[in-house]
């Protein structure tokens, strides 16, 4: 079996493997607590062994215990913050759940190369009023930042310097700041980087009225 | 230019409404004149294949593509470039490619396979890279895989790229 | 928890699994021990025959980037100028990555977005649509049209397209909109040269298109070449001390090193950059200085030929001798005396050299970079009493060889010169020789680690350290900074702790 995390071009590759070699695949997302747990359960379900299912439950329980103090710490501080997202494609809907777990509110989502099925998923998970942009250019990013004034923007290398010029903190979402971000323990890293972004003292200085 | 978002609404920009299921238009080429955030097919191919460090990576084109392509995911990887010059563009880069693959094998004798990337220029001048790759397989004693990823083929993760990137399927 | 030496404080999988609680700071990659297996059983040195780049066709680990990049660098230094790249999306995105990594600044570059149909039918439609979109959205003052390999091979007739586009857009948008925009076409097919040549061509085309002669003034023109914003500030500082008015073509000091201040205008344009009226005025100046012969020399030569304006081409004012030459020619050209402050700055650099020659004398250095920077660094190393053993340039240049030989002859050194070579060849020479120090860009960082030779970062590109773009290497104060860097690096690596406390 193949476990698919990146569900954009890898879906097509997996389809080819399925056709050619009859190896089935399971879609799974390893971002965030809920989705990682779901992924583990589904993989265990696929093999159908009771032992495996039990083991999955054990892992989920243990990992939750290990990370919950750290996650609680960040959740307390991040709840209610507005976040904008601009990543490749599937990661937007992967991370909508993660943001919800941290208590954050997604105000707009942008994708570089997402397809219809991605947008369907994003739309299904989005709250009312969320803005979706396909293949945004610099101008549209600027407009969105001005209009929604997010507390944080999850984006890549080229755009992050532009966003910072508009006083919006960023987290490098392609190759991460201090990763890994996946699975239960990666979630702590992700939450920490988001927290560091939002609460960095630099953003306080930028908005000092006397120096504007 | 305020309100520009609104005048574009309903195209590739949408706002989620309670009942609406409208989706932004997608899978379209970027409009010319944009400051786009997308990259090219070659970028996608490199992003995918660069971490295979036991392979020879030959970028068939002018030297620029190779030097950009050597940095992937914030790390640098060794690439071999055919470094085409003006006369090669006129007369074809076939000889240069064959020699480069041989030299690459001499530098990396332990390589288990070899990737040959096409770039915009070599795709336009029409070098038959696929055939050269097939012929080189005997010489090298390992699979030589043609990666058809000239930049104008599309963005880094366009729908058809996997087939082109992985022709051995 | 036992931590054997190889773990170096990192946690194994077993350690990680037995943790009762993940700390709030999380656990990142560098704290984990991940067992890695070598790709091949042992290192097999490559065949000696294929090491010299002259004997092979392949370029391995190239030390140069493509030609459009140099032209984009130039265009970014002009106020409200957006480069429009007539090529595929990657041809803008890769350079934008490179700019962002070096300068940590946003850079706006527009693309013609070539796709398969464009490759077949030509780029005319994309070009005209692109210019329209760009003008409507961004209101640029100058659009620098830059061609790439693909458009040159297809044979896009840019001059013809531009005429058509201007006619069409004038009808559509009105003459007043179009009159506010200037267009500069630079042909930069990557197969004809590297970024060095791209900058050179852009310098010539910008001046050809924009510079006019009206009433002569007492300014001097400076074409800096691909040096850092810090360097350009230092040049401005020297001009100010000398009380000389100067125009710097492609002034990236305020476009690629900008303050973060709110509110930001939309669309984002940096405050600085050379104004188009200043470029027009460059035809009236007294004299042109092209600091780098290979990067911008063509611009100076054009002004010399067209307006009979004397040109001083090179050397890059780095170190004592070259800065002396630059200051002297500035003084001669304008008739202004050499300012006392400048003499003081020179004195401070010489004082620093006098304090540190015991550290630097006899050190064998390997140098790699763009031809102009590498040649200038070679001279400065000789001035510090160091011995340049291997000098390599990524781009082929006759001037580079001439300059390095002149320096070597003057100081009686015998360096190996690798002209237009790649990092692979340079690396091999470096590993065979006994080298104390490397002067090179970030691409030499891996070699430096592998060969265990300390690296002083200089030239283009530097992306693995912070703040190098803000520092100056040119001028006397820049020399001071570079000297400090060199000596501190030597102290860090060559001297035991108890001997560095004087």
Describe the structure.
The complex is a heterotrimer of chains A (212), B (169) and C (502). Chain A has 212 residues and is of the alpha/beta class. In chain A, 57% of the residues lie in helices and 14% in strands. Chain A has nine helices and seven strands; from the N terminus they run E-H-E-H-H-E-H-E-H-E-H-E-H-E-H-H. In chain A, the strands form two sheets. Chain A has a five-stranded parallel sheet, with helices on both faces. A two-stranded parallel sheet of chain A has the order 1-2. The model of chain A has no long low-confidence stretch (mean pLDDT 90). Chain B is 37% helix and 15% strand. Chain C is an alpha/beta fold. Chain C folds into three domains: 144 residues, Rossmann fold (3-Layer(aba) Sandwich); 121 residues, Nitrogenase molybdenum iron protein domain (Rossmann fold); 159 residues, 3-Layer(aba) Sandwich (Rossmann fold), CATH 3.40.50.1980. Chain C is globular, with a radius of gyration of 25 Å. Strand 5 of chain A pairs antiparallel with strand 1 of chain B.
Defining traits:
heterotrimer, A: 212 residues, alpha/beta, Rossmann fold, 2 domains, five-stranded parallel sheet, two-stranded parallel ribbon, 9 helices, globular, B: 169 residues, four-stranded parallel sheet, two-stranded antiparallel sheet, 8 helices, 15% strand, disordered N terminus
The third-level CATH topology of the largest domain in chain A is Rossmann fold
Q: Can you give the mean pLDDT of chain C?
A: 91
Biggest sheet descriptor of chain C:
5 strands, parallel
Number of strands of chain C: 14
Overall mean confidence score, pLDDT of chain A: 90
* Count of helical stretches of chain C: 19
Low-confidence stretches of chain A: none
The chain-level structural class of chain A is alpha/beta
The CATH homologous superfamily of the largest domain in chain C corresponds to Nitrogenase molybdenum iron protein domain
Q: Which structural class do you get from the secondary structure elements of chain C?
A: alpha/beta
The outline of chain C comes out as globular
Report strand order across the widest sheet of chain C: 12-11-10-13-14
Query: How far is the N terminus from the C terminus of chain C?
Result: 42 Å
Overall tally of structural domains of chain C: 3
- The percentage helix of chain C is 40-55%
Number of helices of chain A: 9
Note the beta-strand portion of chain A.
Answer: 5-15%
């Amino acid at each position: 079996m193949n476990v698919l995390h990146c569900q954009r071009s890898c879906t097509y590759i997996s389809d080819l493997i399925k056709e050619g070699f009859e190896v089935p695949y399971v879609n799974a997302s390893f971002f965030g607590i809920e989705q990682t747990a779901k992924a583990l359960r589904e993989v265990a379900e696929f093999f159908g062994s009771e032992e495996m299912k039990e083991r999955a439950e054990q892992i989920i329980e243990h990992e939750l215990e290990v990370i919950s103090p750290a996650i609680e710490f960040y959740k307390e501080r991040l709840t209610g913050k507005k976040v904008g997202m601009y990543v490749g494609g599937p990661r937007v809907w992967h991370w909508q759940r993660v943001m919800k777990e941290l208590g954050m509110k997604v105000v707009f989502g942008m994708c570089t190369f997402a397809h219809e099925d991605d947008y369907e998923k994003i739309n299904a998970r989005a709250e009312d009023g969320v803005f979706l942009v396909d293949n945004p250019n610099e101008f549209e990013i600027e407009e969105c930042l001005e209009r929604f004034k997010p507390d944080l923007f999850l984006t890549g290398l080229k755009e992050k310097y532009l966003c910072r010029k508009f006083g919006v903190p960023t987290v490098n979402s392609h190759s991460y700041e201090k990763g890994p971000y996946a699975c239960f323990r990666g979630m702590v890293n992700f939450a920490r980087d988001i927290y560091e972004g939002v609460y960095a003292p630099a953003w306080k200085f930028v908005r000092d009225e006397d120096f504007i | 230019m305020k309100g520009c978002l609104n005048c574009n609404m309903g195209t590739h920009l949408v706002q989620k409404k309670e009942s609406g299921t409208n989706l932004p238009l997608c899978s379209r080429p970027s409009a010319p004149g944009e400051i786009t955030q997308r990259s090219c097919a070659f970028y996608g191919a490199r992003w995918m294949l660069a971490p295979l460090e036991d392979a020879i990576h030959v970028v068939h084109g002018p030297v620029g593509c190779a030097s950009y392509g050597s940095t992937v995911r914030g790390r640098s990887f060794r690439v071999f470039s055919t470094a085409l010059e003006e006369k090669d563009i006129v007369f074809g880069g076939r000889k240069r490619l064959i020699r480069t693959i041989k030299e690459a094998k001499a530098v990396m004798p332990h390589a288990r396979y070899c990737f040959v990337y096409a770039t915009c220029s070599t795709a336009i001048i029409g070098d038959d890279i696929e055939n050269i790759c097939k012929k080189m397989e005997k010489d090298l004693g390992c699979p030589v895989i043609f990666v058809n990823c000239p930049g104008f083929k599309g963005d880094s993760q366009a729908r058809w790229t996997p087939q082109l990137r992985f022709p051995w399927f | 928890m036992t931590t054997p030496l190889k773990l170096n404080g990192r946690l194994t999988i077993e350690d990680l699994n037995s943790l009762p609680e993940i700390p709030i700071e999380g656990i990142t990659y560098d704290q984990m021990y991940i067992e890695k297996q070598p790709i091949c059983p042992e290192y097999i040195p490559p065949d000696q025959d294929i090491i010299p780049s002259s004997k092979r066709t392949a370029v391995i680990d190239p030390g140069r980037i493509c030609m459009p990049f140099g032209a984009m660098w130039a265009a970014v230094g002009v106020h409200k100028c957006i480069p429009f790249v007539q090529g595929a999306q990657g041809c803008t995105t890769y350079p934008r990555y490179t700019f962002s990594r070096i300068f940590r600044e946003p850079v706006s570059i527009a693309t013609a977005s070539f796709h398969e149909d464009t490759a077949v039918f030509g780029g005319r439609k994309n070009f005209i649509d692109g210019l329209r979109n760009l003008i409507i959205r961004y209101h640029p003052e100058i659009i620098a049209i830059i061609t790439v390999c693909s458009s040159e091979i297809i044979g896009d007739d840019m001059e013809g397209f531009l005429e058509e586009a201007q006619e069409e857009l004038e009808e559509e948008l009105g003459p007043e909109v179009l009159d506010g925009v200037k267009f500069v076409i630079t042909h930069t097919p990557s197969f004809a040269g590297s970024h060095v040549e791209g900058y050179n061509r852009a310098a010539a085309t910008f001046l050809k298109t924009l510079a006019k002669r009206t009433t002569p003034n007492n300014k001097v023109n400076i074409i800096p070449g691909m040096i850092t914003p810090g360097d350009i500030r230092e040049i401005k500082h020297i001009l100010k001390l000398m009380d000389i008015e100067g125009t710097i073509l492609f002034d990236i000091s305020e476009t690629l090193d900008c303050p973060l201040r709110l509110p930001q205008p939309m669309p984002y344009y940096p405050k600085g950059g050379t104004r188009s009226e200043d470029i027009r005025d460059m035809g009236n100046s007294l004299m042109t200085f092209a600091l780098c012969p290979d990067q911008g020399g063509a611009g100076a030569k054009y002004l010399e030929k067209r307006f009979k304006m004397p040109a001083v081409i090179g050397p890059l004012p780095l170190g004592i001798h070259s800065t002396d030459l630059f200051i002297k020619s500035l003084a001669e050209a304008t008739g202004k005396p050499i300012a006392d402050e400048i003499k003081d700055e020179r004195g401070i650099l010489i004082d620093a050299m006098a304090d540190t020659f015991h550290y630097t004398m006899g050190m064998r250095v390997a140098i790699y970079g763009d031809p102009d920077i590498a040649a200038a660094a070679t001279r400065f190393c000789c001035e510090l009493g160091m011995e340049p053993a291997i000098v390599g340039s990524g781009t082929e240049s006759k001037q580079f060889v001439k300059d390095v030989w002149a320096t070597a002859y003057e100081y009686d050194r015998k360096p190996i010169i690798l002209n237009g070579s790649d990092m692979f060849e340079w690396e091999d020479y470096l590993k065979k020789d006994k080298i104390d120090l490397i002067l090179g860009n970030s691409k030499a960082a891996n070699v430096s680690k592998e060969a265990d030779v300390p690296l002083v970062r200089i030239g283009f590109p530097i992306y693995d350290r912070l703040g190098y773009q803000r520092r100056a290497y040119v001028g006397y104060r820049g020399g001071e900074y570079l000297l400090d860097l060199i000596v501190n690096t030597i102290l860090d690596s060559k001297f035991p702790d108890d001997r560095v406390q004087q």
